[in-house]
Write a structure and sequence with these properties.
Distance between the termini of chain A: 17 Å
Largest interface: A-B, 19 and 19 residues
Oligomer: homodimer
Number of strands of chain A: 4
Shape of chain A: globular
Low-confidence stretches of chain A: none
Order of helices and strands of chain A: EHEHEE
Largest sheet of chain A: 4 strands, mixed
Radius of gyration of chain A: 13 Å
Chain lengths: 86, 86
Amino acid sequence: MELLKVSSKSNPVSVAGAIANYVKELGSIDVQVIGAGAINQLIKSIIISRGYLAPHGIEISCIPSFVDLKINNDVKTGIKFSIITL
Amino acid sequence: MELLKVSSKSNPVSVAGAIANYVKELGSIDVQVIGAGAINQLIKSIIISRGYLAPHGIEISCIPSFVDLKINNDVKTGIKFSIITL
């Protein structure tokens, strides 16, 4: 499965377009984030992408889980959102 | 449908217990939040509640949407998460 990364500085409209494209092509996409700001941007992106996908008869939902991410030899707890079609 | 409200100061373990109970009883629950801190607490709560529900054979996912909330005569944009069973 493909993996997108979203940060607190990501543009929700751009991320929404990427999510919609992946879901249309592959049926699902995993997105990885660290921190409250990044989660916030991702959730906005998911809501916007719902508007891109709904006219194609595609409804999505997301399943969050914790993931350990190694960054510069530090282990940080991030969150992975599996975005799936309903 | 029942409506929970979660803030940036909510305890994720308590919220997770409430989500799990509502999902077991009703099959779904809507949760309303405003702001990145509250979204962060809610997502952690959803992940923890997955651990409470999985042993009962219940898998959940969430569908976010924007909502206009009237607070002290101001209209703020919040986010509503519909938590559903798969």
